[in-house]
């Protein structure tokens, strides 16, 4: 399933602005560019993987 930036942000509980800035500066969260390359989408499985790799047991882990 492909999600828009707004839907992906809602799914993660973060702002769409965070995702937009991540695409420009760090690209930690994988995204897909479709068609004219202006259409950005996120795969739900990529979002789940991002959450899984961002899970810590203690603040000293990161």
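^ structure tokens above, recovered residues below v
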């Amino acid at each position: 399933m492909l999600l828009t930036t707004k839907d992906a942000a809602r799914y993660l509980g973060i702002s769409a602005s965070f995702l937009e800035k991540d695409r420009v500066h760090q690209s930690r969260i994988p995204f897909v560019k479709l068609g004219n390359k202006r259409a950005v989408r996120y795969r739900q499985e990529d979002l789940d993987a991002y959450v899984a790799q961002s899970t810590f047991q203690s603040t000293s882990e990161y």
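The first strand starts at residue 2 and ends at 3.
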